[in-house]
Design a protein that fits this description.
The complex is a heterodimer of chains A (about 180) and B (about 290).
Chain A (H helix, E strand, L loop, with lengths): L2 H24 L5 H17 L8 H17 L9 H11 L11 H9 L2 H11 L5 H8 L3 H21 L9 H10 L1
Chain B lengths: L2 H9 L10 H13 L26 H9 L7 E6 L2 E6 L6 H10 L3 E8 L8 E5 L14 E5 L11 E7 L5 E8 L30 H10 L3 E9 L5 E6 L7 E9 L2 E7 L5 H10 L5
Classes of the chains: A mainly alpha (about 180), B alpha+beta (about 290).
Chain lengths: ~180, ~290
């Protein structure tokens, strides 16, 4: 892969997956500046390791994996921010954040009471729409481990929801059963 | 399964999806301009070496030097035991990969070593990787295989490995890549940007200089230009073609050592924004 091919490949990768990576990152950071740093660093990593980025849909999972680790290692103010990244941060400030209409506040609070690990797997499924095998790829663990983490997190969330008297029937019977199972 | 709990989570999704804005596209171009991508993966190479953008000057000489001092070492690797670890240094940087592997196999280790040509700032770079396919991320056996880094440090974000430690009871498998200087006719496999610390054009006028001027500077260092990758900044720095020669007046916007004695340059009819040049120069540790 010569330099022109690399640039072309990276442009395709960026164009196709920027929205997903930016959304993934912004939803997990309280500050727009942090989000801009992490997005830029995630794609800079992809550029450096272009030969390592899988093709097709798996590229998105690979990028989520990088973004996840970059988020975990990010400390505010430590990145050398370029003027452009600074402007991207300003642009991301306009993002409206959560809408209160979609779910009751008590459900949100129940979610926040979960451990970070539990929230992470649940969000990968609920927000990014991943299945168990895809979660495993993002987390860098086996499918079995991902399935177990997911199962436990769902059980704990169902229990938290039940404790908060969220009307689980709104969402169907399985959540109620899970809550009972974990009680 | 568990669609209902997932549905609650889905409804908690904090905020709408973002889209690719013109500004985000500019960031893309900036990323590509800031550094060349590493060399393409070679057949059989599990994971290309991560080339960090802020390469510091070479300080890993201790790793490479012994082989230069000893013309015909009996073994390619110098291995001694220290606690629960083998401490390994390469004595012969030009041995076949099989030779290293046999020596490591002799210790009961399933570890391969590949010594590859690296541009100056990456000579001495050591990068272990697990042989099983990893998703992106840190090396999984880092507790059992790690580098011995110079206590002086290399500054910036680089560590300066001077050797390799492998736990005696390591039962997994791993590949280790080590950067060494290139020999005539060799292509580089670990590549830093031409203007990065430790590379030939560090802290000399390079970005936005006319091709003719940079060519003269390179020639003084014994380097010729292999090819020119022509970008077009008016089209988002899209690379339009690769050419053997270009007009002298075109601007240099990047480059890297591609093979022994040869540099490839990124050139454009339009200069880079001064702001970007200042960012790059500062990143490279040069006075602005």
């Amino acid at each position: 892969m010569g330099p022109p091919d690399r640039r072309r490949r990276f442009e395709e990768l960026y164009t196709e997956h920027y929205a997903a990576v930016a959304t993934f990152t912004r939803r997990r950071t309280g500050h727009a500046d942090d989000a801009a740093d992490v997005i830029a660093e995630t794609f800079a990593t992809a550029w450096r390791r272009l030969g390592d980025v899988p093709s097709g849909e798996r590229a998105r999972l690979w990028l989520y994996g990088v973004a996840r680790r970059t988020l975990a290692n990010h400390r505010r103010g430590e990145s050398r921010r370029t003027a452009l990244t600074q402007r991207l941060g300003e642009e991301l400030t306009a993002w409206p954040g959560p809408s209160d209409d979609d779910a009751p506040g008590s459900a949100r609070e129940a979610f926040l009471r979960l451990s970070e690990d539990d929230r992470e797997v649940l969000a990968l499924v609920g927000w990014e729409g991943l299945d168990g095998a895809e979660v495993a790829q993002v987390l860098g663990c086996s499918r079995l481990a991902a399935r177990q983490r997911l199962h436990r997190a769902r059980k704990r969330f169902a229990a938290e929801l039940a404790a908060a008297h969220v009307d689980l029937n709104r969402y169907g019977g399985r959540a109620v059963r899970l809550a009972k199972e974990s009680a | 399964m568990n669609g209902n709990v997932d549905e609650v989570v889905r409804r908690l999704a904090p905020g709408p999806e973002l889209s690719l804005t013109p500004l985000a596209r500019e960031v893309m171009t900036e990323i590509m301009d800031a550094e060349p991508a590493p060399a393409a993966r070679r057949r059989g190479m599990r994971r290309p070496l991560v080339v960090l953008p802020l390469a510091a000057a070479v300080a890993a000489a201790a790793w490479a030097v012994p082989s230069l001092l000893r013309p015909a070492p009996a073994a390619a690797l110098d291995i001694r035991e220290e606690g629960g670890f083998y401490v390994i240094q390469v004595k012969d940087l030009y041995a076949d990969a099989d030779v290293y592997e046999r020596q490591l196999k002799g210790l009961g280790l399933d570890v391969s070593l590949r010594v590859v040509p690296a541009t100056p700032s990456f000579v001495g770079e050591i990068s272990p990787s697990a042989r099983e396919r990893e998703p992106a991320g840190p090396f999984v056996h880092r507790d059992q295989i790690n580098t011995i880094d110079s206590t002086k440090g290399c500054g910036m974000h680089r560590s300066c490995p001077i050797g390799l430690r492998i736990a005696k009871d390591f039962t997994g498998s791993a590949d280790v890549i080590l950067g060494r200087a290139a020999r005539r006719g060799e292509k580089y496999e670990i590549i830093g940007g031409l203007a990065a610390p430790g590379e030939p054009m560090n802290c000399v006028p390079f970005y936005n200089r006319p091709v003719s001027e940079v060519r003269v500077k390179l020639r003084k260092l014994g380097l010729s230009v292999g090819e020119y990758a022509v970008t077009d900044r008016t089209k988002g720095s899209r690379e339009v073609e690769t050419r053997a020669s270009v007009p002298d007046s075109m601007y240099v916007v990047g480059g890297y050592l591609s093979s022994y004695g040869t540099a490839d340059l990124f050139v454009d009819r339009t200069p880079m924004q001064e702001e970007l040049v200042r960012t790059l120069v500062t990143k490279h540790g040069c006075p602005g």
